[in-house]
């Protein structure tokens, strides 16, 4: 059965026309799904019984079941959802002073094979559909009775490797009649799928782009992130410059500091050279040690020296606060190990 949450509002209008219904019904249905967050078509009480019946016969509402919910000491919550086909995914809710931020998964498994990432240990299974991405927000909002204010595509999967479904999910999340989260509060994190960065720049979506950079030489980056063998640092930075020029949006460079790997002053100097003058920000991430991972966390002293060097040379850099690390919910720690 088709998942009704896979359709953006224009597509849903077309679906209703196919059912012999008026297209404006799509707006009513959107309101029920995304604003009222209903769990059945029967709750859509301003639709005729006949239309509700047609919807039931043709579509599912894709309501996730919570398989596991872990709450960290800092309030971060990691969900394990049953995606209704025997697979499961992880989604993480983080509480900040400015609101709730949700880290969503975009694929079951990942093809990218970054060496510092726990998801790497699990083979790629499939892409999530737009509706399966969006349902992560709805399921958490239902469970915690909250309104999510920020979404980051930083869970399991490479969002730009599932480009069409991710972009469509963003259109639903961003739509005023949908979940209505401003595009500037939606962030896509990529390992550097260069052709898709160029494509995203043309989409007219004002979302934030985060680039997992993590190294300043091709040799080192390729050893950490195999995608660098396909699209090297120079090509990546050129694509980022194009994104900034077309969207006028600031790019965030993610840089996970690993002890004696990429955390010395020479790395900081090369980083400054690479991105100086760009509309950007650097997020320094104390790397999280993972099971079988070969990287260790940098010392606090090195992290602060690295940050200070960037700041002193005109690059805005901050050290990311670690949330949820006691439940393996911090960056790079999500995986499907509990899922089967
Ligand atoms: S860091 Fe992201 S892109 Fe890299 S393997 Fe992990 S999930 Fe995939």
What features would you describe in this structure?
This protein is of the alpha/beta class and 340 residues long. It is 33% helix and 19% strand. It has 2 domains: 2-60, DNA polymerase, domain 1; 65-327, Alpha-Beta Barrel (TIM Barrel). α5 links the parallel β9 (150-153) and β10. It binds iron/sulfur cluster. Iron/sulfur cluster binds next to loops.
CATH superfamily of the largest domain: Aldolase class I
Bound molecules: iron/sulfur cluster
| Rg over CA atoms | 21 Å
The residue fraction in helices comes out at 25-40%
Q: In CATH terms, what is the architecture of the largest domain?
A: Alpha-Beta Barrel
Largest sheet: spatial strand order: 3-4-5-6-9-10-11-12-13-14
Shape: elongated
Main sheet: strands, sense, barrel: 10 strands, mixed
**Alpha-carbon distance between the two ends:** 24 Å
**Average pLDDT number:** 91
Question: What are the salient characteristics of this protein?
Answer:
340 residues, alpha/beta, ten-stranded mixed beta sheet, two-stranded parallel ribbon, disordered C terminus, binds iron/sulfur cluster
């Amino acid at each position: 059965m088709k998942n009704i949450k896979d359709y953006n509002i224009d597509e849903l209008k077309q679906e209703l026309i196919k059912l012999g219904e008026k297209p404006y019904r799509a707006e009513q249905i959107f309101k029920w799904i995304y604003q009222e967050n209903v769990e059945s078509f029967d709750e859509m009480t301003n639709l005729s019984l006949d239309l509700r019946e047609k919807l039931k016969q043709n579509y599912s509402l894709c309501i996730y079941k919570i398989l596991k919910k872990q709450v960290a000491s800092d309030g971060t919550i990691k969900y394990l959802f049953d995606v209704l086909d025997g697979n499961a995914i992880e989604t993480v809710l983080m509480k900040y002073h400015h609101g709730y931020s949700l880290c969503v998964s975009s694929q079951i498994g990942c093809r990218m094979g970054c060496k510092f990432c726990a998801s790497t240990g699990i083979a790629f299974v499939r892409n999530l559909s737009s509706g399966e991405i969006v349902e992560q927000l709805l399921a958490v909002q239902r469970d915690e009775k909250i309104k999510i204010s920020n979404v980051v595509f930083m869970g399991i999967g490479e969002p730009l490797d599932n480009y069409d479904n991710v972009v469509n999910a963003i259109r639903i999340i961003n739509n005023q009649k949908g979940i209505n989260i401003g595009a500037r509060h939606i962030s896509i994190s990529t390992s550097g799928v260069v052709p898709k960065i160029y494509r995203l720049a043309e989409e007219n979506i004002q979302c934030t782009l985060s680039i997992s950079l993590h190294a300043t030489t091709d040799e080192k980056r390729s050893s950490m992130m195999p995608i660098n063998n396909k699209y090297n640092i120079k090509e990546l930075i050129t694509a980022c410059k194009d994104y900034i020029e077309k969207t006028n949006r600031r790019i965030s460079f993610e840089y996970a500091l690993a002890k004696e790997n990429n955390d010395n002053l020479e790395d900081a100097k090369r980083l400054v050279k690479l991105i100086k003058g760009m509309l950007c920000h650097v997020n320094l991430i104390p790397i999280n040690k993972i099971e079988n991972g070969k990287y260790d966390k940098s010392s606090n002293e090195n992290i602060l020296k690295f940050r200070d060097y960037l700041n002193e040379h005109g690059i805005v850099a901050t050290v990311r606060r670690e949330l949820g690390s006691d439940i393996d919910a911090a960056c790079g720690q999500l995986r499907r190990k509990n899922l089967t």
